[in-house]
Design a protein that fits this description.
- By secondary structure, this protein is of the alpha/beta class.
- It folds into 2 domains: about 240 residues, 4-Layer Sandwich (Metallo-beta-lactamase, Chain A); about 140 residues, Flavodoxin domain (Rossmann fold).
- Helix content is about 35%, strand content about 25%.
- The protein is built from 12 helices and 23 strands.
- The strands form 5 sheets. It has a 7-stranded mixed β-sheet with strand order 1-2-7-8-9-10-11. Strands 17, 18, 19, 20, 21, 22 and 23 form a 7-stranded mixed β-sheet that branches.
- A hairpin with a 2-residue loop joins β19 and β20.
- α5 runs parallel beside α7, α5 packs across α9 and α6 packs antiparallel against α7.
- The chain is elongated and about 80 Å long.
- The N and C termini lie far apart (about 55 Å).
- The structure holds MU-OXO-diiron (FEO).
C-alpha cells in the first residue's frame, strides 16, 4: 500500500505483459495504470485500471478501505485503460456514486451500460468529502473530449488524467523521488507523440488553466507521481504542445535494396561533417512508427526519403506521412529525397506532403534514377549542408 499523502493512497497497477499500447505502440518497459483512493469522511476513488488487472485492483482498494465502503468514483477519463474496471467495481460496491461530466456519462452508458447513481459536474464544481475539497476542471481533448482533471485543494494534489503521463511501468517506487527518472523523459516524449500529439491546442489551454493552481503533487494516470520534477514535466508538455523542438535532424527513409538508403547516408554524412551531432536515422521498415513519431516531435529538422513503389510512394513511408499529417506537427525544417527505376512518384508525394504540412524547406529535393552516382551524391550533400546550415552558426 503506497501513501501519497496522509489520506491519499496509490492503488494503481503495472502492466508488464501487454506488447502494444492501443494495439499500436510498443511497451518495452511496460506501462502503469494509476488509480488513487482518498480516505476522508467519504471514500473516493479516482479512475480505475484496465480490466485485465481488476482482481489485483480490487484487493488493493479493499486493503486501503479496511472494511469501509467505497462512496464515490471520479471518472476523469473514460478510455478503457482507466475506465475498464468500472462495471465490476460497481457490482462490487453497488452504492458507489459515479462522478463525471455529461460526456463521461454518455460513454459510461455506451461502454458499461451504467446510467444510474451518477453525479454530474461542470467546470469549477466542487465535491467536499470531509476535510478534502475536490474541484473539477474540464480539459477536453487531453486526450478524449470528456477528459477532466480533479484538484484536491487540501493537499494541493492534481489528479491530471493522461496529462503528464508517460510510458514505463513503476519499477519499485511510485514517486519520482524514489525512481531513477532518466528513462522517463524519452518515454514521455514518445507517449505524448503517440497518444496526445494531435491535440497541441487543447493541451495548451489545459496548461493555462492549471497554471492558476498551487500544485505540489501531480498524480497522472500513467507513470510516476510527480513531486520533485513538476517544473520539468510541465515544461515538456508545454514544449511538445507548442510543437517546439530541439536542435537536430530526424532522417526517415524507406529502401528496398539499399539505393535510397545510400542517399540518406550521404545526406547524414554531410550534416555530420558540418557539425550536426543530433542525427537520428530511421529505416521505416525496421523502426517502429512509435519511435519515429517520438523523434519527429523531438527534433526540428526532418528529412524523408522514399523509393517509388508501384507508381506510388513506399507504403511504409506513406503510413508514417499520414501519422505525421494526423498530428498536425508544426514548425519543422524539411527536406526530402527519393528514387525510382523507370518512373518517379515518391518525390511528388513528398512534395504534396510538405504542401499539407506547410513546413519550411531547408534545401532542394533530390530525385534519383536507379542508383547513386557522383551527380546525385553531390545533390544529397548539398541538401545535407543546407539543413546543417540552419543549425550551425
Ligand atoms: Fe491513458 Fe487516454 O488513456
Amino acid at each position: 500500500m503506497k501513501q501519497i499523502t496522509n489520506d491519499i493512497f496509490y492503488v494503481g497497477v503495472n502492466d508488464r505483459q501487454k506488447h502494444l499500447f492501443e494495439n499500436l505502440w510498443p511497451l518495452p518497459s511496460g506501462v502503469s495504470y494509476n488509480s488513487y483512493l482518498i480516505t476522508d469522511e467519504k471514500t473516493v476513488l479516482i479512475d480505475t485500471v484496465e480490466i485485465a488487472y481488476v482482481d489485483l485492483f480490487l484487493k488493493k482498494i479493499e486493503e486501503v478501505l479496511n472494511g469501509r465502503t467505497l462512496d464515490y468514483l471520479i471518472v476523469n477519463h473514460s478510455e478503457p485503460d482507466h475506465a475498464g474496471s468500472i462495471r465490476i467495481l460497481r457490482q462490487y460496491y453497488p452504492n458507489l456514486q459515479i462522478v463525471g461530466n455529461r460526456l463521461t456519462f454518455g460513454m459510461l452508458a455506451g461502454y458499461h451500460s451504467i446510467s444510474d447513481g451518477l453525479i454530474e459536474v461542470k467546470e469549477g464544481d466542487t465535491l467536499t468529502i470531509g476535510k478534502h475539497r475536490l474541484t473539477f476542471y474540464m480539459t477536453p481533448m487531453v486526450h478524449w473530449p470528456e477528459v477532466m482533471v480533479t484538484y484536491d485543494e487540501t493537499d494541493k494534489v492534481l489528479f491530471s488524467a493522461d496529462a503528464f503521463g508517460t510510458y514505463g511501468a513503476l519499477d519499485g517506487g511510485v514517486f519520482d523521488a524514489e525512481l531513477n527518472v532518466e528513462h522517463y523523459w524519452e518515454e514521455m516524449i514518445r507517449y505524448y507523440a503517440n497518444i496526445v500529439g494531435k491535440y497541441g491546442n487543447p493541451v495548451q489551454k489545459a496548461l493555462q488553466k492549471l497554471s492558476l493552481l498551487d500544485i505540489q503533487t501531480i498524480c497522472s494516470t500513467h507513470g510516476p507521481v510527480w513531486r520533485e520534477n513538476i517544473d520539468m514535466v510541465v515544461s515538456i508538455y508545454d514544449r511538445l504542445s507548442r510543437y517546439e523542438a530541439a536542435e537536430g535532424v530526424t532522417i526517415i527513409y524507406g529502401s528496398m535494396y539499399g539505393n535510397t538508403e545510400q542517399m540518406a547516408e550521404t545526406i547524414a554524412s554531410a550534416m555530420a561533417a558540418d557539425g550536426i551531432k543530433n542525427i537520428v536515422m530511421h529505416n521505416v521498415s525496421k523502426s517502429p512508427a512509435s519511435y519515429i513519431l517520438k523523434d519527429v516531435f523531438k527534433y526540428k529538422g526532418i528529412l524523408i526519403g522514399s523509393p517509388t513503389y508501384s507508381g506510388s510512394i513506399f507504403p511504409k513511408i506513406d503510413s508514417i506521412l499520414k501519422m505525421i499529417e494526423l498530428r498536425e506537427v508544426k514548425n519543422r525544417l524539411f527536406g526530402y529525397f527519393g528514387s525510382f527505376t523507370w518512373a518517379g512518384a515518391a518525390v511528388k508525394r513528398l512534395a504534396t506532403f510538405n504542401e499539407n504540412m506547410k513546413w519550411e524547406l531547408a534545401g532542394d529535393p533530390v530525385e534519383m534514377k536507379q542508383s547513386i552516382n557522383a551527380e546525385t551524391a553531390e545533390k544529397c550533400i548539398k541538401l545535407g549542408q543546407a539543413m546543417a546550415a540552419r543549425f550551425v552558426n
